[in-house]
Amino acid sequence: MSYPPVRPDRHAAGHWSSFERNKAARPFVRYVHLEGQEHPRPLHALWHNTVLPVDHPWWNTHACPNGWNCHCTLQSLGQRDIDRLQREGEKLKFEPMDGTMRKYINKRTGEVTTVPDGIDPGWAYNPGKASYLGVVEQRLAQDTAVSEWVGLNT
């Protein structure tokens, strides 16, 4: 029996939820462009080693994956990890690169959207955060419904 591959946005959801759970001890996220890709994306390579707080707004549009076949990943870091990487010679960037936007016209619908350069249309969001927040909202709704139901029956 074979199983379908995990969609990249589903994997990102689990990844991001661990960043949220552990941000007290590991408050930073590092963008990692994997070397040796057959078709590297130049902007993704430039974003390599960008280190920002978990809650930085840049992650709302630049969290991996940034399109189909994007092999970049994210790492959660604590200050000791940052210190170690710098001792090992990694050139970390603590500010996001200035980015530009481009218009994208959906050929099927004619809809015009604005997309950050380097990110495929439809991927300019944090799939992990969106899924994580959806789960949190769903749990809050369930808890609220249960507490209201219990309140009505006491």
Q: What is the topological layout?
A:
Elements: H1 8-21, E1 28-32, H2 42-47, E2 51-53, H3 59-62, E3 73-77, H4 79-87, E4 101-105, E5 112-116, H5 127-152
Antiparallel strand pairs: 1-2, 1-3, 4-5
Helix pairs in contact: 1-5
Strand content: 5-15%
- How far apart are the termini? 50 Å
Strands of the largest sheet, in order across it? 2-1-3
Radius of gyration, in Å, reads 19 Å
**What form results from the Cα inertia axes?**
globular
- Integer average pLDDT: 83
> Topology as H/E string?
HEHEHEHEEH
What's the number of helices? 5
| Secondary-structure content class | alpha+beta
Q: Percent of residues in helical segments?
A: 25-40%
| Model regions low in confidence, pLDDT < 50 over at least 5 residues | 2-6, 146-154
Please report the total strand number as a whole number: 5
Largest sheet: 3 strands, antiparallel
Structure description:
By secondary structure, the protein is α+β, with helices and mostly antiparallel strands. The chain is built from 5 helices and 5 strands; from the N terminus they run H-E-H-E-H-E-H-E-E-H. The strands form 2 sheets. A 3-stranded antiparallel β-sheet has the order 2-1-3. The chain has a two-stranded antiparallel ribbon with strand order 4-5. Residues about 1-5 and about 145-154 have low confidence and may be disordered.
Short overview:
Helices cover 38% and strands 15% of the residues. It is α+β, with helices and mostly antiparallel strands.
Core attributes:
154 residues, 3-stranded antiparallel sheet, 15% strand, two-stranded antiparallel sheet, 38% helix, disordered N terminus, 5 helices
